[in-house]
Amino acid sequence: MSSYDVIVIGAGPGGYVAAIRCAQLGMKVACVEGRETLGGTCLNVGCIPSKALLHASHMLHEAEHNFATMGLKGKAPSVDWKQMLAYKSDTISQNTGGIEFLFKKNKVDWLKGWGSIPEAGKVKVGDEVHEAKHIIIASGSEASSLPGVEVDEKTVVTSTGALELPKVPKKLVVIGAGVIGLELGSVYARLGAEVQVIEFLDAITPGMDAEIARQFQKMLTKQGLKFTLGAAVQGTSVKGGKATVTYKLRKDDSEHEVVADTVLVATGRKPYTDGLGLEALGVEISERGQIKTNDRYATNVSGIYAIGDAIDGPMLAHKAEDEGMACAEGIAGQHPHVNYGVIPGVIYTHPEVGNVGETEESLKKQGRAYKVGKFPFMGNARAKANFAADGFVKILVDAATDRVLGAHIIGPMAGDLIHEICVAMEFGAAAEDLARTCHAHPTYSEAVREAALACGDGAIHA
Ligand code: NAI
């Protein structure tokens, strides 16, 4: 039996960050992980592999659509799917290996196996029981199921199976127009699949600023994705390697069927806490299956904490990372704080979508007076040169004080550009602060400044 100050259960972005931070703060730390490699869902079967496939398929798109115009002539590349998967696997290994290196560097012990908590202060991994003054649960999430839909990870897949398909399907049906469905739907559409997205609601990407969502849908439709909105999937059946998806249109209750080579179920995720022994410990769980915590990530059982997808809030790797750091710092006696009002969301399609803070809809609901500053990438020189002039930046500010309340970007590098606004919001900046900051020319970030200028006396290039 070994004794630790902290044992973290789960080595995803929440868990590994918490473990490293605890070690940096002088604690003796171990992290339990049952997968063959560190990094959790994000690095192994989520964010990182999907970004590799998005990048590769975007390169193909550029070659097919823009190379000749730029004077780059030659045979268009063809898809070697096996090699693309190998590139994806290599990207994963580099990143998971990186975490292993960081664990060694920070002297975090990796306890290999699946952990459980037989009692507060103890973590069991395999046959061994280890002692810990503090236990941080960072066990993440899993794809939620849909009644009538049986996932076999071959024909009917979650994102995990969709990252390992034996070949590019001719017809892919995606259930759910959320982040996973649209990112992976984009990948396969670019690789030549016919992609149909079936969504329960009347709009894509629930919770997103509605104007951006409409623009996003238009752009994806132009790229070949077909949307069936207001449709509730009833079930799937598989025969001879093909799947039939049955759905009902909500407007008239009519029933429809579509046959596909592959069906991707992307209807959300739920906390994964199986096998931890939480019920026996008496750890409080919400009706949504999330571990209940206070503002220091402590559960109702002394010495047990929880962070990331297993607790309340958006299921995002960076939210989990922030909570991991804050939880560690709290255990060390510091006074950390996570600002949940400034957590960016990014969809890594092309163009990207980045958002932070309030939407027009949420401000209307609050009855708060606001102003909108918008700027299209069509007025941005760099975007025009790079075939990336579709989309716009939209900044929402308080009508009286000019303070930035939220921002929504659809366009090139939106996932990076959004962080200028995040920093501004953290400092309580006004749009004028952004507008008066010199931005290098020619960069995409000038579009952010122009949108800020549009909150005042007007953008220059619009
Ligand atoms: P999601 O919650 O983003 O979207 C699920 C969609 O499925 C919703 O639009 C919902 O209305 C629809 N839906 C539910 N039941 C349906 C039915 N019976 N028929 C038709 N449509 C139905 O969930 P998603 O895309 O699975 O992602 C899961 C989590 O992973 C999210 O919290 C997401 O934020 C996170 N994630 C984040 C990424 C990023 O930040 N880039 C990338 C991938 C995942």
Write a brief caption for the model:
With 462 residues, the protein is an alpha/beta fold.
Write out key terms for the chains shown.
Enolase-like, domain 1, single chain, 3 domains, FAD/NAD(P)-binding domain, 7-stranded mixed β-sheet, 22 strands, binds 1,4-dihydronicotinamide adenine dinucleotide, 14 helices, 462 residues, alpha/beta
Task: Describe, in plain words, how this protein is organized in 3D.
The protein is an alpha/beta fold. It folds into 3 domains: 3-142 and 270-338, FAD/NAD(P)-binding domain (3-Layer(bba) Sandwich); 156-267, FAD/NAD(P)-binding domain; 342-454, Enolase-like, domain 1 (2-Layer Sandwich), CATH 3.30.390.30. Helices cover 32% and strands 25% of the residues. It has helices at 13-24, 40-45, 47-65, 81-105, 159-162, 179-190, 210-222, 278-281, 317-331, 360-366, 381-385, 414-426, 431-435, 446-454, and strands at 3-9, 29-33, 109-112, 115-119, 122-125, 128-137, 141-143, 156-157, 171-175, 194-198, 226-228, 231-239, 242-249, 255-260, 262-265, 269-271, 304-306, 345-347, 352-357, 370-376, 392-398, 404-411. Strands 1, 2, 3, 4, 5, 6 and 17 form a 7-stranded mixed β-sheet that branches. A 5-stranded parallel β-sheet has the order 8-15-9-10-11. It has a 5-stranded antiparallel β-sheet with strand order 18-19-22-21-20, with helices on both faces. A hairpin with a 2-residue loop joins strand 12 and strand 13. Helix 1 (13-24) packs parallel to helix 9, helix 3 (47-65) packs across helix 4 and helix 3 (47-65) packs parallel to helix 6 (179-190). The mean pLDDT is 97. 1,4-dihydronicotinamide adenine dinucleotide is lined by residues 146, 175-181, 183, 198-201, 206, 232-233, 266-269, 314-316, 346-348. Residues 146, 175-181, 183, 198-201, 206, 232-233, 266-269, 314-316, 346-348 line the site of 1,4-dihydronicotinamide adenine dinucleotide. Residues 4-324 form the FAD/NAD(P)-binding domain. Its cofactor is FAD.
